[in-house]
Amino acid sequence: MGYTIAQKIIKNHLLSGEMTVGSEIGLRIDQTLTQDATGTMAYLEFEAMGVPRVKTEKSVAYIDHNTLQTGFENADDHRFIQTVAKKHGIYFSRPGNGICHQVHLERFGIPGKTLIGSDSHTPTGGGIGMLAMGAGGLDVAVAMGGGAYYINMPKMVKINLTGRLQPWVSAKDVILEVLRRLTVKGGVGKIIEYAGEGVKTLTVPMRATITNMGAELGATTSIFPSDEVTREFLKAQGREQDYTPLASDADAVYDETLDIDLSKLAPMAACPHSPDNVKTIEEIGPRKIDQVCIGSCTNSSYLDLMRVASILKGKTVHPDVSLSIAPGSKQVYNMLAQNGALADLIAAGARILECACGPCIGMGQSPNSKGISLRTFNRNFEGRSGTADGQIYLVSPETAAVSALTGVFTDPRTLGAEVEIPQPEHFLINDNMVVAPASEEEAASVEVLRGPNIKEFPATKALEDTIQAKALLKVGDNISTDHIMPAGAKILPYRSNIPYLSNFCFTVCDKEFPERCRQEGKGIVIGGSNYGQGSSREHAALVPLYLGVKAVIVKSFARIHCANLANAGILPLVFKDESVYGKIDQMDELEITNLREAIQKGGAITVKDVTKGFTFETEAVLTQRQRDIVLDGGLLNYTREHQA
Ligand code: MIC
Ligand code: SF4
């Protein structure tokens, strides 16, 4: 039997386990990346592990999220990351160099290698045939130290692409179609591989847009073959030596197959407040809009922005629309500046931002109240834009640009003949914003600089035998980590300050939650399906831990968040019978006894609803290794014990 692309890479990197669907496998990790919002914590954890130098082939620390420096906090964090990177063998991509996923694709990614990143959009690397996955910071720290990265062997899904996109229809529309069909939970436990004749018609940046937003499917990762298109891209990046061809075997077996005829797709938008709430632009109709934001790791490549520039050239942004544009990297920015396209964007009235995440994570450009904002980003969860009642639609750069001119939702196909923008033969290569680490000899004398914003990692204890606590919060389906631990300009600077962050935990859903936790001292959270979707931020586990959350009982979990809970020592439990969810009310007193033995043994865990006087069964979604982690009180304790 042949192998899929992902199975081949897994096989080459398998350190433990068997490649049977659902069972835990340990993978050797070749490359890691961090960004600043998750990086401070990841490096504190790495330091706590006591490994002097990273053991990966390449580890890169990016600064791209917290670049609004409204106080000392962000700048202090940048300095901490820069010095800690220098000391421990990590390349440092300075603020101004661009968004981690875009830069990594351009300058560091290699087909066939494994990459984990403390950011959920790490699968962007799948655009050049990497097995690239998002992970919690602690998992990245362990991988930097040479440890395996553990996942459950995913199912393999093939998306067979045929035909060719119509003019003005773009990669964003492809992934929106996949989201429309599969939904935000459709990818859980799966790797999505793109195949078929249609693949050849997609450039690397287009492929990367598609694998990037595979994160919104909940997929473990998404991957394209590495082919001539990949080789051309790497060559244009001066990295032809990094190319290796990669394809699935003719007799590879997939668990599911989906067919998409590219020529049938139309421009689409993901409507508020979920990336799978997809409609065509035509269906939405010419509704008035207030804002357009172009950029983010999904759609900020040179080709994307050149298309935007070609649409805006010689025109003026509609008087009622604010248009902001953030190029994805210094390479993109600089090339636009050199060829004059930047001048076209400026002349049209675009507000040009630095190359960083910016508005995507609520760092500025929050829309007006009830404002309709068209964004080329990947997430439109409620409140994420920084405006509680903002109405965020996710669209392609083409739809965004033309709508910015007309002031209403506009199908870019109304533009007439498409302007052909070829991939440049040579991208502009200048890695002067990447700082190499100190040599092994020099490393000892590098001082790690810590500002007052860096607080201790919350202490965890071995799992107690009895949990008796109230259901301090009950939430519904598809709760994202943006609900659990919001980001945005006011909160993001405190990613290394768990006590401060705790004031905002779940406040999108319930303003009183942090206070209730403080009063009660401990608690349990009840949730629906796909709990913890979205970001990889481990703060969505560490902050509840700090607030005394002992267990989370839900219908189902999103992959990264579930691992983060276990890593933090919080019990992730799922209802055996989902209908029990309806019987529990917020503030019910719950009790779990003989817990340690139950976790050790595996099998059902019985929970008593003391208030209502009934019991129900749950299951801990943990592998044997994770059971030990939870028993020890989290991965940091576990790693320390195992090292000892
Ligand atoms: C996001 O897009 O939500 C983020 C911000 O990039 C996160 C990481 C974080 O919360 O710092 C992600 O996608 O993992
Ligand atoms: Fe940054 Fe947005 Fe991409 Fe997250 S999704 S890495 S915030 S650009």
Automatic annotation (TrEMBL):
**What class does this enzyme belong to in the EC scheme?**
lyase
Would you tell me the Gene Ontology cellular component terms? Answer: cytosol
Q: Assembly and interactions?
A: Monomer.
Q: Report the sequence similarity comment from the record.
A: Belongs to the aconitase/IPM isomerase family.
Q: Which residues form the signal peptide?
A: none
Cross-referenced SUPFAM superfamilies, in alphabetical order?
Aconitase iron-sulfur domain, LeuD/IlvD-like
Q: What is its EC number?
A: 4.2.1.3
Cofactor dependence = [4Fe-4S] cluster
Biological process terms from the Gene Ontology for this record are: tricarboxylic acid cycle
Keywords assigned by UniProt, alphabetized:
Iron, Iron-sulfur, Lyase, Metal-binding
Molecular function terms, GO-annotated: 4 iron, 4 sulfur cluster binding; aconitate hydratase activity; metal ion binding
Q: What are the Aconitase/3-isopropylmalate dehydratase large subunit alpha/beta/alpha domain coordinates in residue numbering?
A: 8-285, 287-407
Q: Which top-level group of life is the source organism from?
A: Bacteria
Query: Where in the numbering of this chain does the Aconitase A/isopropylmalate dehydratase small subunit swivel domain appear?
Result: 518-577
* Protein name as annotated: Aconitate hydratase
The organism named in the record is [Clostridium] leptum DSM 753
